[in-house]
Predict the structure of DNA starvation/stationary phase protection protein.
Amino acid sequence: MAKTKPEINLVEIDIGISKEDRASIVKDLSRLLADSYTLYLMTHNFHWNVTGPQFNSLHTMFMTQYTEQWNALDVIAERIRALGFPAPGTYKEFSSLTAIKEVEGVPKAQDMVKLLVNAHETVARTARGIFSIVEKANDQPTADMLTQRLDVHEKTAWMLRSLLEE
């Protein structure tokens, strides 16, 4: 796992969260950002490449999903910055931090849906795993963001799962 980069602030941060706790939170938020970016890229890829009888509905659904995910990336990265650390922003960093496996080739539409369910659930698990340090550090803005992200990913996974039922 990648190391947390050093703070780059010239002015000391004093927001009521210790530097050590902020570094721990950022380490986990960096994993969330990497998972979120990987999910965004997977969803956009599937939007471009989906085919079959569900083309129109999936193409439109995937666009709605990747647009929401794109906007969330900024929220996560800016929280990392507000905590005083640089946000990861390269494919190399994201690939070393993410728990989502890259998809090779172009899966069938139903397989795309299954892969997205798994990826959304992975992001939800990553987000949920951050709460203990966030609660210990009394970091309400990060807790609020995590709650919002969990709501989106759990709801999206449920909607995608419903497409897999017979």
Observations:
- The two ends are 40 Å apart (CA to CA).
- The mean pLDDT is 94.
